[in-house]
Design brief:
Length: 490
């Protein structure tokens, strides 16, 4: 790991009263704050922070050797990212004000209620996590870097939008909050969920539950399990899948299709980390982190009262929306090559060559089934291939079910003005030609061979036109563009 994960840093309790310190630690652990460390000698605090770090410090003011006020100044100066909550038996307003000036997040007077302690600590942890995420995201965006690219190896892409998603995913992967992954069917949502699991560093399993089509009773039994005799046929107790996800990731697929009663149970699980097995009145807790996936538009389902608003807001603390394949056409040649090689290996064939016209046709399709659909087309094309190049007809069996990406035809009344609206004036032939070449190069991810195939002209025609226009040729401006003879090399 290249950076410290704030989620797993300890909560440090500093108090020379060992009994009181132990009671606070017990209270926090029962509230779900697992990594709690106690120190009774204030001289050990700074060496501990230098070696182990901390997400936050709960600091008593009146202590021998080093006072809490002295330590507060040192911590805020040397470790500005650590939140500090001060506790004291001296109920003096001036002292509280002074501590806040020194940088304390909050001030608790002894004795205080357990609920007040828990609320203050959880608020401090939330602020610490948000600061860590913002700093990490800022660094990744500015440096355009990925710390753990291996986690995304299963997702084949060269899209800048997908890379930005990877950077965001690295930042939030260790968050204790739920993560919602959205996108159309076939875009690779489960692959992203597995990347989150790998990045999070959790030691438990990745456990998948498909919520689509399950009634409430089946969902509850599948997820939470049941006790013996809970219903007819329950001859023995059975743990639910959530028990297998302890310390790991619970992957909830298609949560947009859950019944309302199941949504209520999921909401309690997310809020309290608690659940009841079917037929049991014994409350159980879980440490599983939740990653939920849907291809539904949840805000629309909330508006239609088909999905609970409170559950939606609980789920979407962190949301990863994967764009459809038609919005990242630069990925199509890369994915096509990957799937053709994969299919050839499966069918014990040599990978067939692919014509530029075939790639051009694929770039113009909308792919409602996204990456999964392109994979099916590739496998079918390889299975039927016998000799020569794969051309547009090689993928024809699928095309009848797939609309071509196109603009809506203008009405008769507006046809005379649409081209004016596009250019801001009636364009010259040269302007239209320049626009078409630029658009073809954009859709082909800058590859002049594919752009030429899309326009029905030669590559040299594109090069000559760009040269006459005084524009640096695309291959010269983008040295990383793949030559046609290597178009399908990963």
């Amino acid at each position: 790991m290249h950076e410290t994960r704030n989620t797993y840093l300890p909560v440090l309790l500093v108090d020379d009263d060992n009994t009181g310190c132990s009671m606070m630690a017990l209270t926090l652990r029962e509230a779900g704050v697992k990594n709690v460390h106690t120190i009774s000698d204030s001289r050990q605090v700074l060496p501990f922070l230098q070696k182990e770090g901390a997400a936050m410090v709960l600091l008593d003011l009146i202590m021998p050797h080093l006072s809490g006020q002295e330590l507060l100044g040192d911590i805020r100066r040397d470790y500005p990212g650590i939140q500090v909550i001060v506790i004291s038996g001296a109920n003096e307003l001036s002292l509280a004000v002074e501590c806040m000036k020194l940088g304390a997040l909050d001030y608790l007077n002894k004795p205080f209620e357990a609920s007040r302690l828990i609320a203050c600590v959880k608020n401090a942890l939330k602020i610490n996590a948000m600061q860590g995420e913002l700093l990490s995201l800022k660094r990744r965006m500015l440096e355009d870097s990925l710390d753990h690219p291996a986690a995304f190896e299963a997702i084949k892409t060269r899209s800048s939008r997908m890379r930005a998603l990877f950077q965001y995913t690295e930042v939030i992967a260790c968050s204790p909050h739920p993560i919602l992954i959205t996108g159309e069917t076939g875009v690779g949502k489960e692959l992203m969920a597995r990347a989150v699991h790998q990045l999070s560093g959790v030691r438990g399993e990745f456990v998948s539950v498909n919520a689509a089509g399950l009634d409430d009773a089946t969902f509850s039994d599948t997820l939470f399990g049941h006790k013996k005799g809970a219903f007819t046929g329950a001859d023995q107790a059975r743990e639910g899948l959530i028990a297998h996800a302890v310390g790991g990731t619970l992957f909830l697929d298609e949560i947009g299709d859950m019944e309302e009663r199941s949504q209520i149970k999921l909401l309690r699980l997310l809020q309290e980390g608690e659940y009841y097995p079917v037929g049991s009145d014994t409350l159980k807790k879980t440490t599983a982190r939740i990653v939920a996936v849907t291809n539904c538009n949840l805000p629309e389902r909330v508006a239609e009262k088909l999905f609970r608003r409170d559950l939606y807001y609980r789920l979407c603390t962190h949301e990863i929306h994967i764009p459809p394949l038609r919005e990242r056409p630069e990925d199509i040649p890369l994915l096509l090559d990957h799937f053709l090689n994969e299919a050839a290996l499966s069918y014990h064939k040599n990978p067939p060559p692919v014509s530029a016209s075939a790639v051009s046709n694929l770039l113009g399709l909308s792919f409602p089934g996204n990456v999964r659909e392109l994979k099916a087309m590739s496998y079918d094309a390889v299975a039927r291939h016998s000799e020569g190049e794969l051309n547009a007809r090689s993928f024809g069996n699928q095309r009848g079910r797939m609309p071509v990406v196109s603009c809506e035809a203008p009405s008769a009344s507006s046809a005379g003005h649409s081209i004016d609206a596009l250019f801001g004036h009636f364009p010259t032939f040269h302007e239209i030609e320049e626009y078409l070449i630029d658009e073809a190069l954009r859709r082909s991810a800058g590859n002049p061979n594919v752009a030429a195939a899309m326009l029905g002209i030669t590559r040299q025609t594109i090069a000559n036109h760009r040269k006459k226009s005084g524009v640096v040729p695309e291959m010269a401006r983008k040295p990383n563009i793949i030559p046609m003879e290597n178009l399908f090399e990963v």
